[in-house]
Design brief:
Chain A is an alpha+beta fold. Chain A contains 3 helices and 9 strands; from the N terminus they run αββαβββββαββ. Chain A starts with a helix and ends in an 8-residue tail after the last strand. The longest helix of chain B has 33 residues. Classes of the chains: A alpha+beta, B mainly alpha. Chains A and B meet through helix 1 of A and helix 5 and helix 6 of B.
């Protein structure tokens, strides 16, 4: 008799919990969905003025892509050389004819580090990773970006955008 | 630890490893290291049929062994997955203890904290907060995937309980 009561209580608790689960899941889905939509609609809408190419966890960008320079003419600034073992040669390779920047990634195939090729477009103020080696190719599959950061995790290379107007010092 | 429990845990760990490797091969979510989280089914099942301790050990072993098998041990992706898995297991353990939500709710909360743990580790791994912009899409996708994981785990536990009652 006593056990029957207990079983009944357990069932009651379970059904209350299932109801709470459903309420929680649906409520969270709606709230997070709304936030996500809001984020997608509002974030990265303004034109980028600069894009920075980073390697590893260094906080100084190796290459700065300056979209705003000379009213949209644009320019590429190499801030410093990427530190790579001497047998790989010198990086970054900046090719203004094909509008590409080539860096050496961390991802290795047969013990050889692979290159990452970044293409920039001054007219569209966009950056795209056109060649890289990694298990899932997440960063090259992102396609062209005008504000969304491109992160190649296995290669430890990332591109970040800046929308700030140029600072004027008086 | 009796033999039945030991063999069951070993089998569940094997299942978790296989699920983890299979889902790594299909990157549906366009975020580094992010997956649907089917390996979390096993964490959740062990949490409910055994204990928090067993499920945390199993989860840590799973992440370590998958990293070892895929050759990603101590890489950036590894730190992110272990941080996500540990945070999720901890939060799920606490949520189970409060008894407020059922398995599906616990799973949804766990998968949200999995994303948060992963992103926080990611900030340290890549040395930039840029990865935080992936959080909205990850959270958005984590809720249906967490609910699905919870439903599967719940069915598994129900089946296990009938089987457990029959043999004991």
């Amino acid at each position: 008799m006593k056990q029957n009561y207990w079983m009944h209580d357990m069932k009651k608790i379970k059904s209350v919990q299932t109801k709470r689960d459903m309420v929680l899941s649906i409520a969270l889905f709606i709230v997070v969905g709304a936030l996500f939509l809001l984020f997608r609609l509002t974030a990265f809408n303004s034109d980028a003025t600069q894009a920075y190419v980073y390697y590893g966890d260094l906080s100084n960008p190796i290459v700065t892509i300056d979209f705003a320079y000379n009213n949209g003419e644009g320019r590429i600034i190499k801030n410093y050389d990427q530190e790579v073992p001497t047998e790989y040669g010198a990086y970054p390779i900046i090719d203004e004819e094909t509008s590409t920047i080539t860096l050496l990634g961390d991802y290795e195939i047969d013990g050889v580090r692979q290159i990452v090729v970044i293409e920039y477009n001054f007219a569209k103020k966009s950056v795209q990773i056109i060649q890289e080696q990694s298990p899932n190719n997440i960063c090259s599959r992102e396609g062209e970006s005008t504000g969304w950061p491109l992160i190649c995790l296995p290669n430890r290379i990332r591109v970040e955008f800046d929308t700030n107007e140029e600072d004027f010092t008086i | 630890m009796n033999i039945r429990k030991m063999t069951l845990l070993a089998n569940l760990l094997a299942i978790a490893i296989v699920l983890n490797i299979i889902e790594s091969a299909f990157p549906i979510i366009p975020v580094p290291g992010a997956k649907l989280g089917f390996a979390n089914i096993v964490t959740l099942v062990v949490l409910y049929i055994y204990s928090f301790k067993d499920s945390s050990i199993l989860t840590i072993l799973r992440v370590l062994l998958v990293a070892l098998l895929s050759g990603k041990l101590l890489g950036p992706v590894f730190y992110m997955s272990i941080a996500g898995a540990v945070t999720a297991t901890l939060v799920m353990g606490i949520m189970k203890k409060t008894n407020f939500f059922g398995m599906i709710g616990v799973s949804v909360i766990g998968s949200i904290f999995h994303c948060i743990g992963q992103i926080v580790a990611g900030i340290f791994v890549i040395g930039s907060t840029a990865i935080i912009w992936y959080l909205p899409i990850m959270l958005f996708l984590s809720i249906p995937s967490g609910a699905l994981t919870g439903i599967i785990a719940k069915r598994f536990v129900a089946t296990w309980q009938t089987w457990h009652n029959e043999i004991s």
